[in-house]
Amino acid sequence: MNNIIIDLRSDTVTLPTAEMRKKMAGAAVGDDVFGEDPTVNRLEQEGAALVGKEAAIFLPSGTMGNLVAVLSHTSRGDAVLLDKESHIFCYEAGGSSLAGGVQLWPMRGLHHGAVLKIKEAVRPPNIHFAPARLLCLENTHNRQGGTIMLPQEHEKIYHISHELGLSVHLDGARIFNAAAALNCPATDFTSWCDSVMFCLSKGLGAPAGSLLAGSASFIEKARRNRKLLGGGMRQSGILAAAGLLALEHRHSLSEDHRRARELARGLSALAGLAVDQPLTNILILHTSKTGLNPGEFCDLLAERNIKAFPFGEACVRMVTHRDIDDSAVERVIHAVKKIV
Ligand SMILES: *Cc1c(COP(=O)(O)O)cnc(C)c1O
Questions:
Q1: Partner residues linked to 171 by β-bridges
Q2: pTM, rounded to two decimals
Q3: What 3-state class would DSSP assign to 71?
């Protein structure tokens, strides 16, 4: 039992179920670059409807989805405003600057008091400045521990952005986690953006793939940009079939959130450990008062067949997902009790 590995490093480690593999094997397929894969077409339609947009496009990864979005909203030399801690700025290999020729304009704490900060960041026309054209938001926020930006906040930011001539792209890699946590439809958030990317390959459990959704004309541009980046796939209905089932899995994300809370409750009772109350499926532990640094803490967990990531200098991140059940939560609490 204790030799089964519990992997809390990320919700990307979820494995396709037998049911999912069966759907993939039986998928009707065609050449998607010709628009002829019926399963991809269905996934794009269902995905677009779930976030209230006219159209969507299926891509190999979330990183490519964000890059295609930036390319489709901007021209070379434009500025893109985003949070300094955002995935696009921190973890996407600088692709927007490289492939899009845009200036990324990172802002500290965009998620708090955003409207004022955006007003300050959009400078008047001047030959010295790259003109700001796009604002990127992230919900739930990965580096901020799966925290949620509320729909009202999105609404305010959307209006001010449009007044200032900015389009709004939402990196909604985990937007269905935000929706599950507030028990609302994803459209409560996505009504307030011009485009949204969401991942099928994280908590939703597909082996690969993301969708980018927006207006029909925006997605037409995105199709060219996906092709340009080498992301035009062929019989990708095999993957889209997994994606369709993954979309149904969104209803079970609240179970992951419940388990994250249970993990937090169990761990915060242990000596020296401080735990941020998780709002979704990401749990941040502060280990400094246990006398262990995050690396040492994770090494001791690994000896007990539990995987987690150090998160900065002082924290450890744990992520709950479809492959973590109640008994795994108990085993983690038990193991950490031994360690501290
Ligand atoms: C994972 C993630 C991405 C990128 O998705 P990949 O499929 O891993 O490329 C983008 N944004 C956020 C917030 C993420 O967590």
A1: 138, 197
A2: 0.97
A3: helix
What structural domains does the chain harbor?
18-248 (3.40.640.10), 252-339 (3.90.1150.10)
CA of 90 to the centre of ligand 1 (A): 11
Omega of the bond leading into 190 within 30 degrees of 0 (cis) = no
Q: Is the CB of 210 under 6 A from ligand 1?
A: yes
**pLDDT attached to residue 130:** 96
Instruction: Sort strands 6-7 and 306-307 into parallel, antiparallel or unpaired.
Output: parallel
281 CB near ligand 1 (under 6 Å): no
Token pair for 318: 């744990």
E-strand spans in the chain? 6-7, 55-59, 79-83, 103-107, 132-138, 167-171, 195-199, 210-214, 274-275, 282-286, 306-307, 309-311, 315-319
**Which amino acid does the sequence have at 312?**
G
Phi-psi region of 81 (alpha: psi -120 to 50; beta: other; left: phi over 0): beta
Above 80 in pLDDT, residue 127? yes
Q: Indicate the SS3 state at residue 275.
A: strand
